[in-house]
Structure formats: structure tokens, C-alpha cells
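Methods: holo model generation. Sequences were used as deposited, without trimming of termini or removal of tags, and paired with ligand SMILES retrieved from the corresponding compound records. Each pair was processed once, and we did not select among multiple samples. The sequence and zinc ion SMILES for this entry were:
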Amino acid sequence: MSLKCSVLKSGYCEQTQGFGGSNNHRGLDLVGKGYTLDDIVSYDDGNVLMSVTGYGNGQGEGVNWRYGNFVKIQHDNGTVCLYAHMEYTSVRVGQRVSKGQVIGRMGNSGNSSGGHLHWEFWSKNDYNSNIDPSPYLAPKEPIVLPKPVERDKNKRQFQVDYNDNLRVRKTPNGEILGILNQGIYDFISTETNGGYEWVKLKDGMYSAITDMSRILEVEKEEVQEDLIDEIEMLNKRIVELEDKLSLFEKQEQEYKYFVAPKEDIYYIKLKKNETLKYLRRD
Ligand SMILES: [Zn+2]
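and the model returned the structure below.
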């Protein structure tokens, strides 16, 4: 089954031998898609430390007997890749190479029993620091940073005030993935870490709220709904009170006050057209 492949020009390969195992294999053995030969490309940007060419199968001494024609490249983060058993190499020592640049042709030189690439991945420029290249076989997915969006008061958004400053990290305080330009961006949630408030842009992308960025106000829809409910309730109450008031006014019109002209003042409410007889007791 073909695998996505960061070190062959076609971008695909078949793996014929994995790392480790009973013979303590130091790397991966790869051939081109459909068990063909392919051009070999550099895993990443770097500088060519060694480029050995001109050997055939099983010839040479030492590393050349083992590796045949090979290229060793140191990447900018210090890791080293070694590509062995090439038919020929096409880069020279000291040359700067880019990720994906062809560095030679797959072959059968050195201690090899058929055309293939023997790929080693070292954590530093030390023969004994070789690690399993498997995690690096599939090309890294390109990092796509979020793009600025329109202001939307119903969304959680934050604003970046300056270009070329605000970093995007894989985790709060973690690996830097890129820089956000000036603009407004959506975010999912916030969390506090290392003395900063972080906004989560999406899974695996965080930015700190610094003096170059700020969280924008949200008019939450739930709050609006709550307010609408409350207003409806108050309107109902107003209607109820208006009904009561009009009833009261109606009743009020039907009554008039009678004020008794005596020292002990008292009030009697009378209905319209009602009369009160005030009896003087002599
Ligand atoms: Zn091998």
C-alpha cells in the first residue's frame, strides 16, 4: 500500500522495511509507488554535511560499503537526515537545500540488495542519535492560520491591533505556528495560562491577549431572549394594571364623596344616584 512520503519526489512510497526489528535496522527502507525507483528529495531546509557518490553495489570501504552513495543533511533545528544507497547524488557539501529539493536518485549502491532508499533520521549530528523516521514520513500538513472576519456582535471575537506581532501557538505558551495580522478573528473559548489570558482560535491554535489584542464585546442571543421574555411579562403586567386602573376609574366615576359637616369628619362613598340622608338627632 502506498504511503504519503516526504522524501520522494512523487510524494508517495512503499515501505519495504521498518525501523528497528531483529536486525536493529537504523532507518526506513523505501521504494517508489508501485515498487519503482524515484528521485529523493530533502525532508526539510538545511545544509549538506556529506555527499558521497561514485560507488557501485557492495563497493567501497567503511560507511561507503554500508551506505554506498549517500547524502547527509543538517536541518535548521539541528536534526540530521541521511539518505543511502543512491544511484548518484546531485548536491555538494556545504550546499543549502530546500525542503522538497531533489538531492539524488534512488539506487542500489553499497550494502543493498535491490534499488531502494535507506532513510535515517538523527536527532543531532551524531551517528548514535538515530531515531525512528516513521513520524516524519508523511509530509507535515501545511499550517493554515485563521483569516480576519467581519465584526459580528453575536460571535465571540477578538481584535488584533497591529501587524507582525501577535503569535499563534499550538498550545498556550507552546510551539509557535505563525503570526496573526491586524484584524478581527473569531474564537471558541478563553483560558488562563502562564499569567496570560488565551483565546482558542481552533483546536491546536491559541493566541495570548496582550496589549496588541483585545476581546470584543458580545451581545449574547440568550441574553436578548431573556430580555424579550421579561419585556413580554412586563407588558402583560401593564395591561393587567391598565385594566385594573380603568375599572377603578369607572368605579370612581360612580362614586362621589360626601363630607359630613361636623367636627368628627368622616367620609362616605356613595354610588352615583345614591343619596344619603343625614339625620340630625335633636
Ligand atoms: Zn535500510
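The chain has three domains: 3-137, 157-215, 221-271.
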